[in-house]
Amino acid sequence: MKRFFRNKNFTCGFILSTLVVGVAAASLIWTPYDGNKMNARDRLQGPSWTHPLGTDQYGRDSLSRVMTGAMNSIIVGLVTVAIGLTIGVALGLASAYYGRFLDEAIMRFSDLLFGFPAVLTAILITSILGPSMVNAMLAIGIFYIPVFARLTRAVAGVVWEKEFIAAARVSGISEWSITWRHVVPNILSPLIIQGTIQFAVAILAEAGLSYLGLGTQPPHASWGRMLNEAQTFMSASPWLAIFPGLAIAWAVLGINLLGDGLRDTLDPRMVRIR
Amino acid sequence: MPEAPLLHLTDVVKHFPLGGGVFTKPTAWVKAVCGVSFTVQRGESFGLVGESGCGKTTIGRMILRLIEPSGGRIEFDGQDMAALSRKDLGRLRRRMQTIFQDPYSSLDPRMPVEQIITEPLRTGPRPPRAERRETAKALLDKVGLREADLDKYPHEFSGGQRQRIGIARALCVRPELIVADEPVSALDVSIQAQIINLLADLREEFRLSYVFISHDLSVVEHICSRIAVMYLGSIVELAPTESFSRAPRHPYTSALLSAVPLPDPHRKTGRFAMEGDVPSPIDPPAGCAFHPRCRYAFGRCRVEKPVLAPATPAHSVACWLNDGRGQCETERNGHRAPAKAEAPD
Q: What is the Cα–Cα distance from B40 to B221, expressed in whole angstroms?
């Protein structure tokens, strides 16, 4: 554990991410106001002592909404990446290993998913399954599968050709444990990086879907939804967009730094050089 | 019953498909190995020499069962490897190991040395951790590395040291046969000598047999007792090392030998440089595969493929010269061949 914190990226990323998670967790127990409660008298107020981040067009407290939104956004990011990563990596590994027909089938399926614009695919899926945050996550997660499948196939294909794989085979190790012991650790770096990128993209994608009424349902808050609602009041009340935007930037920066640090500390070549 | 030879190859063939996808047939076949037979006795070092692309690596990989032969039989200790069950094959595999050419690609960059060299122990009953570390320590000592190196990662070592780690891994399960595929070609000349000497010492100590694959005749001569020369997928000459350099019988071998650099600039060699390139193994020439580049080629060479036949009891050659006995003394000194069945056209 100590060796992780010797890495500056990891430490910074860890602190930033922990703060976001902390805020999200705190929102479950306490927020300054009820984030969903409207108050027509206090609408569109700037930051003040009573409402540190101001209020929106319905007089809802922005700070409370950013806090509850943190939970939603983190869940969206984690769940979508988890779906894409597990299924995508499994498919990519199978594709790289078996080749031939299975490879062809998986890759053409990826092409098919890629052939549609992301939002369109998500709209399609959510309109079939019905609009809700869970279905929005499912839609984004499904769209992530080919992203990870392709990446995994490409890098795993290279690793399988290495001579240390042949050496492991000569040793009589099963193909399954070769995959776990040799292939997966060697493709981890690009996967971690891709995962952190997709995490950030998911938060924004959820915003897009929410905007179309397919994601988080009103009156509940997510950062993306808050950004979209703030658009209308951009010139009069810019803080409505600035604070959820900053929150997204914060979380994305945190997760990216965390990913970079993780990649470097997990790579034995980087640790000792420093 | 006499003891079966350690390794016995009979008419081994390997063709690789070229092109072709899921729905299309291969457009051509690369005939990488076409009918190779040889025997390796216990404790023997058998050298396999030839240019790049002659199929020597493919043979090594087939022996190790990394690729399946397209035809022929490979017997290890009297057992046909193709007929073995998965479990028996696994057991057999512990008796043969390999050393690779590229010391950079052959070690997993994400594994510490201890894990790399004890990896073969993961099959079968696994000894406890402390014992594995003991084994790893002893192996590192054998190949001339230190105990402190156990917890390092491959990138912390030089090429020669990495090759030593690879050798330690090969020795881990106490194999009887080691297939060494160009184990020194990627190393500096000074390091090459160290590694070759190490391999020779280890053969004594562990009673190993080697199949030593190399394109460098001088290296193979140093460590092997018998040498087979390959050209375009076939063995063209097979002989004990002494009679080899002294009296090569195949014109291709003479050419290879004359290409070995000598430290004496004044020494005159009947230099026989080959012309042209190796023909494509997709569409090998008819008759003797070497005939387009052979200065002794005559009519029969273009039509009929010579088979590997004994010219003397220990020395086999696949050449039509002198009724299938290859070159004799006079020709070897660089003079023109006097005795030929037909004049060259």
A: 16
User: To 5 degrees, how large is the angle CA B313–CA B317–CA B319?
Assistant: 140
- Higher confidence at residue A89 or residue B313? A89
B153: chain A residues, CB-CB within 8 Å: 268-269, 272
Contact flag B93-A170 (C-beta cutoff 8 Å): yes
A101, A104, A164: residue with CB nearest B108: A164
Chain B CB contacts of A181 below 8 Å? 111
Nearest CA in chain B to A101: B22
Q: How confident is the model at residue A227 (pLDDT cuts 50, 70, 90)?
A: confident
Q: Rounded to whole angstroms, how far apart are CA atoms A119 and B178?
A: 57
Map out the domains of chain B as residue ranges.
7-18+28-224, 245-332
- B177-181 and B96-99 strand pairing: parallel
With 90 as the cut, is the pLDDT of residue A115 above it? no
Question: Does B216 contact chain A (CB < 8 Å)?
Answer: no
CATH of domain B7-18+28-224: 3.40.50.300
Cβ–Cβ of A167/B106 closer than 8 Å? Answer: yes
| Residue range A126-179, pLDDT digits in tens | 888 888 888 888 888 988 999 999 999 999 999 999 999 998 988 888 889 899
Q: Is B153 on the interface with A (CB under 8 A)?
A: yes
**C-alpha distance from B204 to closest chain A C-alpha (Å):** 23
Question: What does the pLDDT read at residue B271?
Answer: 56
Which helix (H) or strand (E) segment is A207 a member of?
A: helix A184-211
- Chain B CB contacts of A170 under 8 Å are 64, 66, 93, 96-98
Measured CA to CA in angstroms, residue A70 lies from A117, A122, A226 at distances of: 27, 22, 11
Residues of chain A contacting B64 with CB distance shorter than 8 Å: 166, 170
pTM over cut 0.90: no
The SS3 assignment for A61 reads strand
Confidence of residue B22 (pLDDT cuts 50, 70, 90): low
Say if residues A203 and A77 touch (Cβ distance below 8 Å).
yes
Task: Give the CATH H-level superfamily of domain A10-20+56-273.
Answer: MetI-like (1.10.3720.10)
Predicted confidence at residue B342, as pLDDT, reads 43
pLDDT band at A273 (very low <50, low <70, confident <90, very high): very low
Return d(Cα B156, Cα A110) in angstroms, integer. Answer: 40
For chain A, domain boundaries: 10-20+56-273
Give B-chain residues touching A169 at CB under 8 angstroms.
66
The yes/no answer to whether this complex scores an ipTM above 0.85 is: no
**Does the pLDDT value for residue B316 go beyond 90?**
no
Dist CA A173 CA A78 (whole Å): 34
